[in-house]
Amino acid sequence: METIPALAEALLDQVVLVRRITRAQLSVASACPGWTIRHVINHSIGVTQKFTRFAEGDDRPSAPTGDLIGDDHVQALECVVELARSAWASVDTTRHCELSFGSFSADLAAGINLFDVLAHGWDVAAAVGLDWDCAEDLWMCGFEAATAVIGEQRDLAHYANEVPEEAAPRESSERRRSAAGRVIP
Q1: What's the rounded mean pLDDT across residues 1-17?
Q2: What is the rounded (10 degree) CA torsion for 149, 168, 165, 178?
Q3: Which fold has domain 3-151?
Q4: pLDDT at 182
Q5: Which candidate among 56, 104, 116, 182 keeps its CA 20 to 30 Å from the CA of 175?
Q6: What are the pLDDT digits (tens) for 154-166?
Q7: Cα separation of 131 and 84, whole Å?
Q8: What is the domain partition of the chain in residue ranges?
Q9: Cα(154)–Cα(150) distance, rounded to whole angstroms?
Q10: What is the pLDDT of residue 105?
């Protein structure tokens, strides 16, 4: 599957997931140290907004700061997903996205956003015991992007240690999550 359509599909899957999260669950601790589910969703909205800005024409996008959720986490995500899907549908794929940690093709920029959606969607679902089974080809696209970005100089501020091979699950989508330090307990 191509990365930009994979991102568009994963964003819709993320909306379906977040619709299942109650306001009370927003205060539940996530797998991300020091973050609640609200923090994770807020972060993911910010990442998607940053990459939407790139898709709209800003070659040096930055993530917005502060509370991006407001009073309605579902509506906040739905709005950013609608904008993102529209922007990525018409992105100039010859451009490059300039970030603090490198220069990335439009396809790889979409892949970074995709991996963020998948990894943090999994974080949210796992925190409250929900199933979140995205299609295997979405995980494959996200994993390929993450592998290209993470490389050998793993930034532990952004990615947990990879789960060692002997401790990693055998199912392929779970194995890909373990590359980002996520494994089902």
Answers
A1: 95
A2: 10
A3: Four Helix Bundle (Hemerythrin (Met), subunit A) (1.20.120)
A4: 52
A5: 104
A6: 454 554 555 555 5
A7: 25
A8: 3-151
A9: 5
A10: 94
